[in-house]
Automatic annotation (TrEMBL):
<protein>
    <recommendedName>
        <fullName>Endonuclease MutS2</fullName>
        <ecNumber>3.1.-.-</ecNumber>
        <ecNumber>3.6.4.-</ecNumber>
    </recommendedName>
</protein>
<feature type="coiled-coil region">
    <location>
        <begin position="511"/>
        <end position="630"/>
    </location>
</feature>
<keyword id="KW-0694">RNA-binding</keyword>
<dbReference type="InterPro" id="IPR036187">
    <property type="entry name" value="DNA_mismatch_repair_MutS_sf"/>
</dbReference>
<dbReference type="GO" id="GO:0030983">
    <property type="term" value="F:mismatched DNA binding"/>
</dbReference>
<comment type="subunit">
    <text>Homodimer. Binds to stalled ribosomes, contacting rRNA.</text>
</comment>
<dbReference type="GO" id="GO:0019843">
    <property type="term" value="F:rRNA binding"/>
</dbReference>
<keyword id="KW-0175">Coiled coil</keyword>
<dbReference type="InterPro" id="IPR045076">
    <property type="entry name" value="MutS"/>
</dbReference>
<keyword id="KW-0540">Nuclease</keyword>
<dbReference type="GO" id="GO:0006298">
    <property type="term" value="P:mismatch repair"/>
</dbReference>
<keyword id="KW-0378">Hydrolase</keyword>
<comment type="function">
    <text>Acts as a ribosome collision sensor, splitting the ribosome into its 2 subunits. Detects stalled/collided 70S ribosomes which it binds and splits by an ATP-hydrolysis driven conformational change. Acts upstream of the ribosome quality control system (RQC), a ribosome-associated complex that mediates the extraction of incompletely synthesized nascent chains from stalled ribosomes and their subsequent degradation. Probably generates substrates for RQC.</text>
</comment>
<dbReference type="InterPro" id="IPR027417">
    <property type="entry name" value="P-loop_NTPase"/>
</dbReference>
<keyword id="KW-0238">DNA-binding</keyword>
<keyword id="KW-0255">Endonuclease</keyword>
<dbReference type="GO" id="GO:0016887">
    <property type="term" value="F:ATP hydrolysis activity"/>
</dbReference>
Length: 787
């Protein structure tokens, strides 16, 4: 139960219900929202939460639920229950459309059997009677009108009406043309009067045509006359139309009688649609406030992680601002949190967030908090918020507060959540403080849970020395004199009364006078609190700075270790390449000498020919010497990028750039990987690279693609290790042209997931990311889509 009755309203729960109603498709759904109440049964709460969570999953990750045509068929069915009544064409049409929606919804969940068990339970054991729709469709067409062939009698009557209308039209057209030729008619065409087709005749000629005058113009110069011959035919049509209406009513009565035994089933179908509309509205609201399904426990405890007040969140969302999240824990050890701090620092918002989210959970609504939050169940929720003074009841503000405290003391227990805003205010602080302390002591003995906000120092001191009570403060920026809206557990907070007064511009003389009037003890306590908060802020900033420096050092060490590993790995390869290159040079020189000797022998040592051959040999050797002595060209890393082809300056070997690290480049040469200095290579065009080498490298890429695993498991890694692995992993994936990857990081407390996703959002080649399906890992796995 909630006490007092208006506590839910003061916490903002009525506003929440009004927002949910805007998402309903029907008035029935809105009526169900109005009936939302705080529950205490664990199974019921769990069921309603899971229904909303499953519908949220459908809206975000599955095909749309076919729930477009939705009418209030309950009133129609209740009407059909009464003997002698019948449903109209339109009512039967709406029943048919609603039943089609019901069967489509049931088929939707049947196709996904077991995927949404809590939603499937809504229509468990509900029979599917499609014969009802077939019976309706036998007499009602797709536009909601009676079919002309619904019965043989109706077909005959409808045919007779059409024939009589055709004959009447033909006759009146003939008479009208004859009257026109004689100049008896007024300007204009045939017109309808009293549902009859009439000829506009000039008043002076009205006796020249036999017929019935239905009307005359405002001037009296024109009368509207129905000829005798047509009058008789129109009477026949009118009689046939009455007969047709009687036949239609007869068919509707018969159909209503036929469906009357199915009234209980139709009401069940209506109930299913109403519940689906209700759950859908809750799920849409949950998506709008970015709500999640927390861990529901049976104990009277709360642990909110990154919680936000939903109404505050929506207001800030419109203004494109963010809400500072709340982290708070209430359990057996720390039962009551006593929150202190400056005015407008967020104390009341903190307390109201706890109260509102607790009411939402116990009403079956998802809450804007981390999914790892834990929320228990309270049998009672007591709240003292705002000013409840009453002239009629002769209650002052303080009397109203005391009346509530009396009720709290009498009825609170260990299953009660107590929320008190500005505890003890409304009277002389000398008496209000001690009374508040006594009330808090009594409630603590009853093991209640709750959040209390206060400015009273005696309550802060009492909480500090009493088991079960825990001080907390709203942090404040001393330098900028601005609240940070962050709850810090473990110590009380200063009210910053003098600091805020000074910022507003209160004169120094007044401030000094006020300080003299404050007791020395109180002044020392307040100064100590301010100093503690400042020291804590400096400590946090120092810790962040040290962590950043440590991260930078780790990155540099990692780069050095990587480079060292590459060098060690390729040391033997470099020596081997040098030996092969030297052997190639010697082999080419020997071949040149052998060819020269052979040609000298063939020319039989002809003097002139021998001299020419020797000159050619010397020129070739000199060319080689010049190439050996050439200074190597310096190649800066800016000129090269991944994927470029390069050639060694001192040989004809060609490789492709894999990575560039400072003044070193890592090359791919077939199956080999080599680390060389940038000044030993030069960039070459793709066209100058032989086809067989490009083909070989392409084959290597194909092999890399076939061996590359599109699933990366980072569970158990630290943040910096995980990011390093992801960086290498993404680079290879982009090089291989993959479109998507799967990264397994686990759920845990969400720190690794958040760190990884923040990095992925900054990676330029990432298109978007999303969770794995809930049944296959949920947000413990991230799908990465590459551009």
């Amino acid at each position: 139960m909630i006490y007092p009755d208006n506590a839910g309203e003061k916490l903002g729960f009525l506003d929440i219900k009004e927002l949910i109603k805007t998402y309903c498709l029907s008035t029935m759904g809105q009526q169900m929202v109005d009936k939302i109440q705080v529950m205490t049964n664990f199974d019921y709460i769990n069921k309603f939460l899971r229904q909303t969570y499953e519908f949220k999953n459908i809206l975000q990750n599955d095909s749309p639920l076919p729930i477009q045509n939705f009418f209030d068929i309950k009133s129609m069915v209740e009407k059909a229950r009464i003997e002698g009544t019948y449903l109209t064409e339109d009512e039967f049409f709406k029943v048919s459309l609603s039943l089609s929606t019901v069967f489509s919804v049931i088929q939707y969940f049947t196709d996904r059997e077991g995927q949404y068990p809590n939603l499937e339970a809504l229509f468990e054991h509900l029979p599917i009677e499609k014969s009802i729709i077939r019976k309706i469709e036998m007499i009602i067409d797709p536009k909601g009108k009676i079919k002309n062939n619904a019965s043989s009698e109706l077909m005959t009557i409808t045919s007779g009406i059409a024939k009589a209308e055709q004959e009447a039209r033909k006759k009146i057209d003939q008479i009208f043309k004859n009257a026109q030729s004689n100049g008896w008619t007024a300007d204009g065409n045939l017109t309808i009067r009293d549902g009859r087709l009439c000829i506009p005749v000039l008043s002076e000629n009205k006796r020249k045509l036999k017929g019935f005058i239905h009307d005359e113009s405002a001037s009296g110069q024109t009368v509207f006359l129905e000829p005798d011959e047509v009058f008789h035919l129109n009477n026949i049509i009118r009689d046939l139309e009455f007969e047709r209406r009687r036949e239609i009513i007869k068919l509707l009565v018969a159909l209503t009688d036929e469906l009357r035994p199915s009234v209980p089933l139709l009401l069940s179908y209506h109930g299913l649609l109403t519940k689906l509309d209700f759950v859908r509205a809750k799920a849409l609201f949950a998506i709008n406030i970015e709500a999640e399904m927390p861990v529901l426990i049976k104990e009277a405890e709360i642990e909110l992680i990154n919680a936000r007040h939903p109404l505050l969140f929506l207001n800030f969302k419109k203004e494109q601002q963010t809400v500072v999240p709340l982290n708070i824990k209430i359990d057996e050890e720390e039962r009551v949190i006593v929150v202190s701090g400056p005015n407008a620092g967020g104390k009341s918002v903190c307390m109201k967030t706890v109260g509102l989210l607790q009411i939402m959970i116990q009403s079956g609504l998802l809450i804007p908090a981390d999914e790892h939050s834990k929320v228990g169940i309270f049998k009672q929720i007591f709240a003292d918020i705002g000013d409840d003074q009453s002239i009629e009841s002769d209650l002052s503000t303080y009397s109203a507060h005391l009346s509530k405290m009396k009720y709290f003391i009498e009825f609170a227990n260990s299953k009660t959540l107590v929320l008190i805003d500005e505890f003890g205010t409304g009277t002389d602080p000398q008496f209000g403080g001690p009374i508040a302390e006594a009330v808090l002591e009594n409630l603590n003995k009853k093991n209640v849970r709750g959040v209390v906000t206060t400015h009273y120092s005696n309550l802060k001191t009492f909480a500090n020395s009493t088991p079960g009570l825990e001080n907390a403060s709203m942090l404040f920026n001393n330098e900028k004199m601005q609240p940070l809206y962050i709850l810090s557990l473990g110590k009380p907070g200063s009210s910053y009364a003098f600091e805020i007064a000074q910022k507003i511009g209160l004169s120094a003389e007044v401030l000094e006078s006020a300080k003299r009037k404050v007791g020395n003890y109180q002044k020392k306590v307040d100064t100590l609190l301010v100093d503690l908060e400042r020291d804590k802020k400096e400590l946090i900033e120092a810790r962040i700075s040290v962590e950043k420096k440590e991260q930078k050092v780790k990155t540099l060490l990692s780069e050095n270790e990587q480079l060292k590993a590459y060098l060690e790995e390729n040391k033997k390869l470099i020596l081997k390449n040098a030996k092969i290159e030297a052997q190639s040079i010697i082999k080419n020189a020997n071949k040149l000498i052998e060819n020269t000797i052979s040609e000298i022998k063939e020319s039989k040592a002809d003097k002139v020919q021998t001299q020419n051959l020797r000159q050619n040999l010397e020129q070739e050797l000199k060319k080689h010497e010049v190439q050996e002595k050439k200074a190597p060209k310096i190649q800066h890393s800016e000129e090269l990028k991944k994927g470029d082809w390069v050639k060694f300056l001192d040989s004809e070997n060609i490789g492709q750039v894999m990575e560039i690290a400072r003044d070193n480049v890592i090359l791919a040469m077939g199956d080999l990987r080599s680390v060389v200095k940038l000044n030993r290579v030069e960039k070459v065009s793709n066209k100058s690279v032989p086809k067989e080498i490009r083909k070989s490298h392409s084959t290597d890429l194909t092999e890399s693609f076939s061996t590359f695993n599109t699933e990366l498991d980072l569970r158990g890694m630290r943040g910096d290790e995980a990011l390093y692995e992801i960086e290498k992993y993404l680079d290879r994936a982009v090089m291989l042209g993959l479109s998507g990857l799967k990264i397994i990081h686990g759920k845990g407390d969400g720190i690794l997931r958040k760190l990884i996703r923040e990095y992925l959002r900054k990676y330029p080649q990432v298109s978007h990311i999303e969770d794995e399906h809930a049944d296959r890992g949920g947000d413990g796995i991230t799908f990465v889509y590459l551009k």
